[in-house]
Every structure is written in C-alpha cells, then in structure tokens.
Amino acid sequence: MSQVQVDESLVRNLVEKVLQHVQTGWGGRVAPTPGAGVASPVSAGPPVRGAVQADSRFGQFTDVDQAVAAARVAHRALMQRSLAQRAVACDLIRNICTVQADELGRMEYEETKIGHPPHKPEKLRLVSRIAQGIEVLRSECFSGDHGLTVEEHAPWGVIGVITPVTHSLPTLANNAVNMIAGGNSLVVNPHPSGWRIAAHGARLFNQAIYEKLGIDNLICVIGSPTLESAQKIFKHPGVDILCVTGGPGAVAAAMASGKRAICAGPGNPPVVVDASADIANAARCIVEGATFDNNLLCLSEKELFVEAAIFDKLMAALTNAGACRLSPDQMDKLAAACIDKDAATGHYIARRQFVGAEPAAIAREIGVEVPPACRMLFGQVGTNLHPFVQAEQMMPVMPVVSCRGFDQCVEFALQAEHGFRHTAVIHSRLVDHMTQMGKAMDTTLYVKNGPSLAGDAAGGEGYGSYSIACGTGEGVTTPLTFTRTRRCTMVDNLRII
Questions:
Q1: Same-domain status, 226 and 301
Q2: pTM for the full model?
C-alpha cells in the first residue's frame, strides 16, 4: 500500500477545532477543572455494539486524521498536568478493569468468540496487578566537579497502537496505563474482530479521565478498522512511534514504516522436562499455563519435549492433572483437521475456527468425545516436525515428543521456537540443565519449574504486560518503554558539596 499523503492544513484545522473544544468545553460548556470530579456534559451512552460515530468524544473515531489530531491535543493537555494526575488517569483505568471485569470480559467473548469465558475477567483484573505506572519514572543524577546533570524520561507524544483479537481490551488497557504514565496519548487500530470491545473500553476510560481531569481523547480508537487504516497510522506524520501486538504481518508492516516500532510478535514456546524433574508439579504447571484462556497467550506452552526415561510417568501425570490423552493416530487426524500449511511460506498455521476453542469442541472434530471438565488434549507425536509442534496453534492441545536425552530435548525446542526469542519453559532440578537451555534458547522469557504465566508476573515475581516486545528487544513493556531520555546540565554550579 502506498504512503498516505496528509494535507498539513487539514491536520492543523482539525487540531485547532479539537483544541477549542478542550479549552471551552463541548457544546459551549466549560470543561471541569483538574481534579474536580464533576460529571461529563455528554453521556457515555450504551455499550458500543454498532458503528462508532466520529463525534470526537471519548476516543470514538472512524477517521485516522481526526483521531491523530485529537490525540495530539490530548497529549499537549496531559503535558500540562502533574505526574500525580497521570497516576490518577492510570488508576482510573485499572479500577474500571477491576470493577467491571465480569461485564467487559463477557462482552469481549461475545464479540470475539474465542478463548475460555471464565478467564476473560481474570485477564482484565491482571492489568491492575501487573501493569506499571509512574513509579518507574525515576530520574538519574550526576554530580561532580563540573556541576550537575539530570536525565529524565520524556514522552514521545502520540503512539500508534495495534491490538490483537486474542486480548483486545486487556492489551489496550495495559498499553494505556504504560503509555499515559509515560506522558503519551494513543491512536489504536484494534483487530477487526475485536474493535467493538476496544472502542467501548476506550469510551469508559476516556470518560472517567475527562470527568476527573478534564482531558478527553487520550485513547483514540478507530471504529471498523482495516488494514488500510492501520497502514495510515503507520505512515501518519502526526504519529511519533508505534507499538504493535500481533502476528508476523502486522509486525513486518510496522517495521517497514520508517518509524520506531516496539513489536510484540508471535511465539511458539517449547517446554522441556528432564529426568530430574518433579513430574507431578511439571504436569500441573503445563496444564495450568497451556489452558489459560484456551492457550491464546503467545507465551503459553505450545509443545512438549520429554526425556524418554520419564516419558510414561509424565503422560500419566498429565492425565492426573486433568488433561485427556489422544493416541498418536488421533493427534495426526487432529492436525489434519485443525492446521493448514501456507503454500507460499511453508509455515504451519492454525485454522481460525479452532483458535481458542474448547477442548471438547476440538476433539469432536475427529469424532472423539471427552468429558466437559477436560481442559487440555495431549498426545504423543512421532517427530519434532509434526504440524502441531511447528505451528503457533493457540489451542488447548499439547503435542508431546519423546527424546533420547536432554541434549535432544534442547535441540528440538530450539528448532520449534523458530528464533522468535519469545518464551521457553523447563522443568528440572539440575542447575546445569537450566543454564544450558537458557543459553541455547536466548528467549525474552525463560521460566523454570512453573507455568509460563509466571514469566509475566501472573504467579511469579516482577511486573507484567500484554505486550512482550521480543522481536525488537524491549521485553516486557513498561512506561519506560514509551519514553525517551532527555538530559539537562548545569555547568560548574548546583553541586553543594
């Protein structure tokens, strides 16, 4: 697609109009003073279920130019506020994700039709627990014979954001907390299959921020998004940097935009279980991680390599942990039903209708009935090149490969990860095995003796994010990811020692 040429006078006029609305209030009414906490003069209305109206309120847009103009005005307004007020905005988003988690999670599932419904609210509640805010924006100071230098974290401005269908609102909310804490505003092109919940969430967040701080449109969402609207955001001169959470196509387009791009791309996380492992714990952790939201997370366990000496014990333990075992022949039939091979690239890809589906529905595709309580299908496959091993399949289906020894486990795991440098998991009591695999895999997340979720602060220490930038190297994103360093120097003065 060719680069969109934007008429600068059009953008300037749009900015002036939106700025006038922010300064004078909408419909001639004065905007509330910072922290006033008064009600908005315009109701948020019912949940967004149809076309978004480009009314320039609460982040609802259909036109990229209008959205970018409004986001630039919002960014400038945010820069006039204190860090404490940024923290207020972030806390408002966190609170909505917690208090309205059940309703918003239900709405997301109704729109996307993928994943495990009970896990949708939990993914929103996680935003409050794992997303970092202004507390990480610590300044660096250098004091010496020649004066004082201070380095601080400044915003980029307007960030163009792509969110995935797998976690439409959780990703938007997590990004919004990180980016607003860093002083930025957002223009979001959601996945077309999850844009309504993204737009509705943005409406709730923006209205709460406007009522408390008097700033609107910090989060601008494009309704009825397309590849063309994404490309326009990528090329727009009013967008300063990009943050993409999605598949290889979206990442490649962002990287080709000419802008700095923070890209959370695909993953195909392997799990290795060696002969020293706590077998029961390994099985429980594998089932927990691989079944969360029916394996929609890019960091979730996708394939399993096991030393032959403990293969039978682990297979029995997986059954005890609530998974349902299929025969090798059934695994082959399931792969034929659920996975395609891209003729152009030769890559294996999951068929859309099976992504995030329930285990019983997947098993039924090959005429197998499993108990309703079954959370994962698993079975031995004969080769590490099996389609279920090679595809980032995002289903609660675990292919298991028996390996001669630990070295072969690591060799197969490295091949299956495809160099995404995303996530790898090991279950072992041997520190040298943990070290060997960690060096070989070179992944952004490396989890030992726990479920993959622990690597993103869900059951492990640290902070987390729904955007894990493995391809571009930023790792688990934070407000610092979306800032640039500025330095201020006073020569030969202000050192008081």
A1: no
A2: 0.87
- Residue 131: which domain range? 8-265+477-483
Residue 316: count other Cβ atoms within 10 Å of its Cβ: 14
Residue 45 lies in a domain: yes
* Whether 258 and 284 share a structural domain: no
Q: What is the dihedral of CA 230, 232, 238, 242, to 10 degrees?
A: 30
Is the Cβ–Cβ distance between 214 and 181 less than 8 Å? no
In a domain, 495, yes or no: no
Residues 6+ apart with CB under 8 A from 129: 457, 458, 464
Tokens of 294: 């029916």
Give the domain CATH number at 242. 3.40.605.10
Please compute Rg for the chain using Cα positions.
Answer: 24
d(CA 122, CA 128): 10
Query: Residue 290's pLDDT band (boundaries 50, 70, 90)?
Result: very high
Lowest mean pLDDT among 50-59, 168-177, 324-333, 336-345: 50-59
Distances (CA, A) of 18 to 62, 66, 168, 205: 15, 9, 27, 19
- The secondary structure of 4-73 as a DSSP string is PP--HHHHHHHHHHHHHHHHH-GGGPPPPPTT--PPPSS---SPP-SPPP---STTEES-HHHHHHHHHH
**pLDDT range class, residue 55, cuts 50, 70, 90:** low
Any domain includes 469: no
Note the pLDDT tens digit of each residue in 391-407.
Answer: 999 999 999 999 999 99
Cα 58 to Cα 194: distance, rounded to the nearest angstrom = 18
Does 150 lie in the same domain as 59? yes
Long-range CB contacts for residues 449-452, cutoff 8 Å, separation at least 24: 449/277, 449/278, 449/281, 449/282, 449/285, 450/285, 450/425, 451/285, 451/286, 451/288, 451/289, 451/292, 451/301, 451/425, 452/269, 452/289, 452/290, 452/297, 452/299, 452/300, 452/301, 452/423, 452/425
Number of domains into which the chain is organized: 2
283 and 426, same domain (yes or no): yes
Mean pLDDT of 145-162: 97
DSSP 102-128: HHHHHHHHHHH--S-TTHHHHHHHHHH
Beta strands 376-380 and 241-245: pairing type? unpaired
CA gap 223, 53 in Å, rounded: 8
Question: What confidence tier does 497 reach under pLDDT thresholds 50, 70, 90?
Answer: confident
pLDDT in tens, 253-280: 999 999 999 999 899 999 999 999 999 9
Shared domain for 184 and 228, answered yes or no, is yes
Closest residue by Cα to residue 211 from 37, 5, 450: 37
Residue 113 lies in a domain: yes
Q: Is the same domain home to 252 and 381?
A: no
User: What six digits make up the tokens of 417?
Assistant: 């990860």
